[in-house]
Amino acid sequence: MKFLRRFLISACMAMAVPCLHAQFYAEQVLNIGRNVLSMEDYVLAIQYFNQAAQAKPYLWDPYYYRALAKLMLDDFHGAEADASQAIDRNKYKYEAYRVRGFARMRLGLDSVAISDFDKGLEYVPFDKYFLYYKGVAQASKGDYAEADSTLSSLLNLYPRFEDAYITRAQSHLMNTDTVGALTDLNQALSINTNLTQPRLIRAEIALARKQWAEGAAEIDTVLNLTPGDASLHVNRAFARYNADDWAGAMEDYNYALDLEPDNYPALYNRALLRFQVQDLQGARKDFTQVLKREPDDFPARYNRGLINLELADYKAALADFRLIAGKYPRFYPVYYAMSRAYQGMGNNKLSADYFFKANDMVTRYVADPKHYKLDRPTIQQGERRENSAQKSDSPEEVMEHFNELVTVSQTEETTPVYGEKLRGRVQDIDSRVQPEEAFQLTLIDPTDELHPRTGTYAELTDINTSHWIDSQLFLTNRSTTPQEPELIQSLFDTVEQMNRSEKTSKMRPVDYLKRAVALSALKNYTAAIADLDKAIELSPTFASAYLQRAPLHVPALNMAEGAPEGMLAEAEQREALEKALADYDAALRIDPRLTYAMYGRGCVLYQGGDYQGAAEAFTKAAAMQPELGAAYFNRALCRLRLGDKRQAMADLSRAGEDGVVQAYNLLKRL
Fold this sequence. Notes:
By secondary structure, this protein is mainly alpha-helical. It is 67% helix and 1% strand. Residues 1-21, 378-401, 420-431 and 561-568 have low confidence and may be disordered.
């Protein structure tokens, strides 16, 4: 019975229109959508939830899950509307209040967000995230006492919830309670010493207190945990400069600009530092780069003018000074500077005129500051030092911020990322290295400027040139699921059209392949495998069907009904890998020169932990097709696993040459 039920489910999934009762269809589409959502393919998940909502518009589930997908895409208006639809259909589903509350919080609607969190707490009074988000919203609203009470209640229930300590610390800071903030930050770090956010906040507190050594030490630790952040080097340089470590500051600015050549704060600060150490040519070059990005940055323009004065390039200096005077006619220092420029050019009359004009401006200001105010051009980007927040425009202070370093805020907003399951992804962006994937067929042309080439082989060329199907097939190892809704819809339309055709005409192996390719892109792996089974049954020497089916076995197992994510039995996982390996071996028996089957064989062996066998397969694939960068990259990962760093680095270099972008990131880290 269980086998029969799974067979019926698979058959139904292969259809884009219901083959059984609408309720049954809606449940199956909803199940696929939930699995796709767990794989973080939010655009495709929304398409599935659309179908479920159309089939059964009174169900709350499609609207709730669609709201969740929209939330992950930062579509907060759409998430709020869908969560409201879910609540209208079932007011007892408290999860929808959490999603709607979070969306409203991100829209700045803190009061109504708090109402949603309170409603959820009526159903689950001790829910960690209802309490947490409520505390965040209260702090954002400025209700610091209420936020402290909510977060304290949360921490009484969950004393090791580090994010709550960080949020309460930020609330304390907004309420000017630095001591309370530091206490909470220290507590968060006692729970997890690898947290970066508390250290960044402590660094900003130290810099605000002019505790330069302490601030630099905090940033040192963060850089050890998360190397490669240009803004961290900018802020450490600021601390080093103020501690009179100018060489260390210059080193940080240079490194930040190696990471991000157009980094504004690093360019501006390095220019100032170069000016101070009389590297005039270097300073002028940096200020010129700043002005290309920010033409209205008048402090940069003024400083470049002063540098041109020092270099006796008086015409260039005057060009900068005139622009400033045109924008800020009461900015007296520019007239003193113009006086110097004309003096250098030998025009004593104009030099005297501008000198007396500046003197008169200062004299009038001193006599009556209210009626004779001075202009104060400001830096366009970055954050000012504490003393630059002064509002006075006295002659002594008006130039102060022209020669100040800028810093970059490293602390995140109080508003957190939604959901406990996805919180780990931020640090994974830089640290997780994934092997290049196996190749699959797709109906959507995957080529773009960064990936101009797609793979091909003899049988695929025959299919495309002989026009056995009315669509072109492409081979790629990038995602075959498009992000554009119209392209996703075209895949659904393809499946539906072929379902109708199947009722009136006999399907050929290549027809089953085409529908399987569309279903694979839609992540309906069970139905795709069923179609490929039929193609192989009709044509046992159909290499493309084996090549397409091989990489589907493991994801199909992961999406099987009732299989908890990441909790599959080792035996089941091993069986799926063996099926994939058998398919690649079958394809190679049919075509021993099928590079992509040999490469796929290596991917399976790597996934199964056989790094030596995988490396040998990737070596054979690279021998068959020397420009296959993915084979070099994956072989590099195998060699790293086997302890051969030197050969791995050579492979990464070759992979980068052949277009595998992540090879350079890994090579740099090695």
